[in-house]
Design goal:
Elements lengths: L10 E2 L1 H8 L3 H9 L7 E2 L7 E4 H20 L1
Antiparallel strand pairs: 1-3, 2-3
Length: 74
């Protein structure tokens, strides 16, 4: 029998996102509404519990570093 490895999607709550990025809650929400930060997902339909996909937040951070490095080269 071959085992299937499943990749889990890890969700981050706002406190984890602010700690990981160093960006305030207000700024995260503002940037997200402008399309400058990953959108949150609703954890409970119609509820206020929200979270962010860890891989998307990490991708956003990686892009910040890439942008910095490209700017330094020009």
């Amino acid at each position: 029998m071959v085992s299937k490895e499943t990749k889990r999607t890890r969700l981050l709550r706002i406190n984890e996102v602010t700690e990981l990025t160093g960006v305030s809650r207000t700024t995260i929400h503002r940037m997200s509404s402008k399309g400058l930060f990953p959108k949150s997902v609703s954890l409970i339909p119609g509820g206020i519990a929200r979270a962010w996909v860890e891989a998307e937040v990490e991708g956003w951070l990686t892009q910040r570093v890439t942008d910095r490095d490209l700017k330094a080269q020009s």
